[in-house]
Predict the structure.
Amino acid sequence: MASESSTQAYGEPSYWDNRYSNESGPFDWYQKYHSLAPLINLYVSRHHRILAVGCGNSAFSEGMVDDGYEDVINVDISSVVIEAMQKKYCNCPQLKYVKMDVRDMSAFETCSFDTVLDKGTLDSLLCGNNSRHNATKMLDEVWRVLKENGVYILVTYGAPSYRLSLLRRTFSLIKLHVIEKLISEKRTDPPKWDLLKPVPCDNDVRVLDTVLGQNPDVHYIYICTKDSSLKPDQKQDLAVE
């Protein structure tokens, strides 16, 4: 991870403006679209209205459009990267880019998206100052903008022992998938983990440790479904990374 001073700035537009001013090409956190496409296809219909939070200069949404997705709204806190992406995709009506802080997405109506995609944005907030407060604000906004039975797809390095308690404050229906961190487009051997098969995800994280082993070299994908009838109460203090 980055130094302490830079991680504390992850919630500040100036940090990201500076970073994207000095990045020449696209960068995808954790996984590229081709790796996650089978899982995205499983949970997200082509006609769904999709919100990609903390989009940066990722080519992930472009991959979705190439795969037939029709409406992908991308938001980021950095005006520098949003302006660059608006220019880059000005002739692609399926992709829209809006400068926005994920902790306050009031410009979007309640229950207006079928899917919210997050590759690294919650993680970045958890690396900064006031991490628990900022993460909770973001998740509350994600819940608000999702339609009933919509899904929040979180791709993260955060193991269940660090992420489940946080996510369960907002979502009761959660499935967990895993994928190896480095997957080559040209690999011929079968992956160690079946991306489309959920990993048992209950209250005892020790069961997950048994299934996955200690310190597995994977990214975790949490599929969180909005069901207002099951929304948890505001709960106890949370342990976060």
